[in-house]
Every structure is written in C-alpha cells, then in structure tokens.
Write a structure and sequence with these properties.
The chain has no helices and 5 strands. A hairpin with a 6-residue loop joins strand 3 and strand 4. The protein binds zinc ion. The site of zinc ion has 8 residues, from loops.
Length: about 55
C-alpha cells in the first residue's frame, strides 16, 4: 500500500505538522490542527511533500 507524507502548516496558528495518507488525492480533505484544534483544508496548506516519516 502506498503512503504519502506531507508537511502542513496551520493557517490559524502557523505551526507545522506532518500528515500521512494512502492516496495522493487531497481535494476535500481536512485536518484538525494538533496545536490549536482548528480544522483546515489539507490541499491549501501543504508546505511540501515529504519522502518518508
Ligand atoms: Zn493551529
């Protein structure tokens, strides 16, 4: 099974966090920030794709 890793930045608090998924399609997916609890759109907040965990 494929795994893709991304570095995301929260639009509310600016903290960065890792996210992993089994599909490259990020449209319509949301993540809740582990720091401030605010949900945001993953697609719009990808800083970069990571090569591994
Ligand atoms: Zn946040």
């Amino acid at each position: 099974m494929n795994k893709f890793y991304f570095l995301l930045m929260c639009p509310n608090c600016g903290n960065k966090m890792k996210y992993h998924t089994t599909t490259i399609i990020l449209s319509g997916k949301n993540k809740r920030c582990v720091y401030c609890g605010k949900s945001f759109s993953i697609k719009d907040r990808v800083v970069k794709q990571l090569l591994g965990p």
